[in-house]
User: What shape does this take?
Amino acid sequence: MSHRSLIRIAVSLASLILALPAHAASGMRLSWDHCAADGRVANKAFACDTNNGSELLVFSFDPPVAKTDCVGIEFVMHIKASETVMPAWWQLGTGGCRAGALVYSSSVAAAGTCTFPFGPTNAGGVAGFTADAIGPGSWRVLALTAVPATEVFSVTPGVEHFAMALSLRHTKTVGTGACGGCATPVCFGFGSLKIVDATNLDNIVMLAGHGNQGGSEEAVTWQGAYVREYIVVSERVGTFADLQCDPDNSSPARRSTWGAVKSLYH
Assistant: This one.
């Protein structure tokens, strides 16, 4: 496989079991605090000194084509610690030290100046966590937003659309029962987005754009972490991702290879 093919980003929720459509395109953005259109915030520093409050991760997109019969959005997010073991503070799935601390949100307030495409009865949530999905100290997070078939929504190219938000609560940060590791630098990658139409036959699949030294608009960090590289490769045998997360930008650059990426899944 050529190097050019290696850095081609081709990840989608559907591709976990199915082949990707040929018309996939880039245009996803991830930001702390508010929608990227309101001024993208790439890193979040938290003093880890309170159990109160939360931080907001906001997912948005600019679609490659117009569509008027959309009924839902599915997405994949990757979380990777700068250590080989995911700290207890980031054990967010069922049975984890901070289970339930990552909460879905789809509100007009969270959208800010980004276009809010959904009607009033949209619903959704975090569908699941897969531990060590892209190597030790990682999570793959699946989430979705849906509307009733009678309330289809539209998307338009050249417009920043709100997809959903995830609220990261500060619970169990300090005091009795606290979960360690809040200060550990962590990286996040917005891997894919699927806009589902009413027939489920002509969906729009958007992909993270390319290998990103230092990250891109699809990646954000926690506590000053550095996204060394974010590569997602799609082959007939499956979809493979490698999110290289360093505690800062002091380490020498390193380049993933196809074999190294695939080895994470064996």
User: Anything to note?
Assistant: Residues 44 and 157 are 29 Å apart (CA to CA). Residues 3-39+49-263 form one domain.
